[in-house]
Amino acid sequence: MGQTLLASALAIATSAIIGAVSLGGARAQQSLEPVSVIVFPGGFNGPIWAAQDKGYFASGGIELNLTNTPNSVFQLTNLIDGKFDIAMTAIDNVIAYMEGQGEAPTQAKPDLTVFMGGDNGFLSLVTVPGVRNVTDLKGRTVSVDARTTGYAFVLFDLLKRKGLNDGDYKVEKAGGVLQRWEALREKKHDGTLLLTPFEFMAKANGFNVLEYAIDAYGHYQGLVGASRRGWAAENPRKVQAFIKGYAGGVDFLLDPRNKAEAIAILRKRLPQMSEQLAEQSYSYMAGAKGFTPKAGIDMDGVRKVLELRSVYGEPKKALTDPTKYYDSKYYEAAMR
Predict the structure, then answer these.
(1) Cα–Cα distance for residue pair 206/210, rounded to 1 Å
(2) Dmax of the chain from CA atoms?
(3) Could you count the other beta carbons within 10 Å of the beta carbon of residue 226?
(4) Domain spans in the chain, listed from the N-terminal domain onward
(5) Which CATH architecture has domain 123-217?
């Protein structure tokens, strides 16, 4: 993708957030090394926001330049082509592009690595008010980010578990979770996967939350920290500082003593969010099915991702080795 497309996508992104924490004046701020990070918009960025506000990234000598992506294609192709240093993305996206199953071509050959975990995806199947169970989706339209990435296989599998096979419903690409929620709210589609806190917004507007993916699977690896292998090898200190800062943000959010401050941080970044919605979102994301403590990776969750990709991915591949995509040395060094 060229600079024109990059500029356009950046313009339509919900916001571009730059975290800068004072370390004792302008001179200290100037010593922070920039790291460009591309994320999906949403409250699940809470660990990053908390780490920025509490100075955890700054204490590691880095300053994040955050960009919200409109969809997984933009995020992954631009990460692979060197426009960004780090992505908080679904591990399924990383695997797809590494295995030649990505949604779009890239200029550079994909050579990505995952260096930490994050969460189970906070994935929920949400439908318009008139659709009260999965079988009601027969003959209707569901939306995805991309057909071959972006949690699409979770959606297809949840439908299959309830008896709906490919051909029983239509599939349309609608973009990232923000775009999917907007399309669902306008009833352009009948069902989709949403990520917290969007399902709470949907429920408050009369939409139906039919199922959480983590309840169906028990283990599923959602968001992870990923970068190009070459960039990580050249910048191990930045990778470790990012891991340590993010893990610190997770620990802050999981500490119930920080609930009020955590909710305030969430509302500062998402001012349109009501106090009630912010509290609902925080309680779920900081609960038993929320963020993974210290941003560890769930290898059983990665195996579930590989299992789904082996069934639904094209071209067909039997994917069984979760260690192929995860390099533990950066996490281990950061946690020492």
Answers:
(1) 12
(2) 62
(3) 27
(4) 3-119+222-334, 123-217
(5) 3-Layer(aba) Sandwich (3.40)
Task: Work out whether strand 112-116 and strand 223-228 pair parallel, antiparallel, or are unpaired.
Answer: antiparallel
Q: What's the token pair of residue 37?
A: 């990070």
Predicted pLDDT of residue 29: 52
Tokens representing residue 84 in the block: 């960004």
Task: Give the C-alpha separation, 118 to 106, whole Å.
Answer: 26
**Tokens at residue 210, please?**
């039919």
> Which positions ≥6 away from 2 have C-beta within 8 Å?
none
> What is the pLDDT, as a whole number, of residue 4?
40
How many residues are recorded in the chain? 336
CA 126, CA 236: separation in Å to the nearest integer?
40
Q: Rounded to whole angstroms, how far apart are CA atoms 200 and 217?
A: 21
Tokens of 3: 């600079």
Q: How do residues 290-329 score in pLDDT, each as one tens digit? A: 999 999 999 999 999 999 999 999 999 999 999 999 999 9
Strand 86-90 with 223-228, pairing: antiparallel
pLDDT digits (tens, 9 = 90+) for 121-165: 999 999 999 999 999 999 999 999 999 987 999 999 999 999 999
Read off the amino acid at residue 171.
V
- Token pair listed for 52: 């920025």
Contact criterion met (CB below 8 Å) for 193 and 181: no
- DSSP letter, residue 30: H
Q: What is the CATH number of domain 3-119+222-334?
A: 3.40.190.10
